[in-house]
């Protein structure tokens, strides 16, 4: 036992001397390179929003826009920051989005034809864009500002021209969309810590709520089995949302507030629908890393073939210092070397003398929890 502790102490002292010199060559898989990897278009296009003739989305943490046929692709932002949650204005002239380019996540707007992004919120708490008022004069967003004693999200609006934000409702509100007449909201109250937990049925799942803004009365959408109901979109007389209530796979559903009807729109097996947005009689959604368009007049769905090509410095091959990302340390049976995980690669290190060896060299995959076999 004393020998073991002595060996462990020697090993960790040795690791402390080696780790500062531990670097790897980091490359990004071709699917992230920005070049079309397959005929169907670029993968990992995320968070689509749609207008009458354009679609905007997030790729590589930047905001992009193109025609619905994938042509005339335009990169609207190019920053080291993370842009997210884009939403077209009702007239399609503006795109509101969230960005942490100034430190905290705030609300920005940018012309859909390109131009300078304008910051609209300045509060220290993070602000997540959720949509627009039907008249296009206000941006709806969620923020935990001025909540206590525990932070929780509520819904706010900020004018397109800039100015003070206004609290929409005092109740919890993580996501929401206005009804076409602006008199109601469809609200998702809960910020789930893992929205992709398949078939989760715990306390974080709450029903979507129709909120009457005149008297703040509520109507709950059916949710008998605590399904995960997220990403509500209000188009015409229907509310569309993503739900895993049938078979545990997230599909698109529709609810009629007038007749209280519930209808499953898509019936995918296997992978989930990840995001949902809409305009007029069309929905756009994310699935299998691609963007899809669904025509509500006939329920026909098609994949949008968008090829993203650009300069992506974050995808370049480079030397990466991984000395501060060491985990899963194990000693070899002889006690002469150790095996560690660092930033998705597996290395062996000498306890006394020798070299550091990267034995996986797999930048396109994450290798974790290495263990040395008893035979070495």
Helix content: under 10%
Quick one: biggest sheet? 4 strands, antiparallel
* Strand adjacency order, main sheet: 2-3-4-5
Q: Tell me how many strands there are.
A: 30
Average pLDDT for all residues: 88
Q: What is the overall number of helices? A: 1
The SS-based structural class is mainly beta
Low-confidence stretches: 1-9, 26-39
Proportion of residues in extended strands: 35-45%
Report on the architecture of this protein.
The structure is a single chain. The protein is mainly beta. The chain has one helix at 2-18, and strands spanning 23-26, 46-50, 54-59, 62-67, 74-75, 83-88, 94-99, 106-111, 118-119, 127-132, 138-143, 154-159, 166-169, 175-178, 184-188, 209-212, 218-220, 229-235, 238-243, 251-256, 261-264, 273-279, 282-287, 290-295, 300-303, 318-321, 326-331, 337-342, 345-350, 357-358. Strands 2-3-4-5 form a four-stranded antiparallel β-sheet, with no helix packed on it. A hairpin with a 6-residue loop joins strand 4 (62-67) and strand 5 (74-75). The longest helix is centred in the N-terminal third of the chain and has 17 residues, at 2-18. It is globular and about 75 Å long. Residues 1-9 and 26-39 have low confidence and may be disordered.
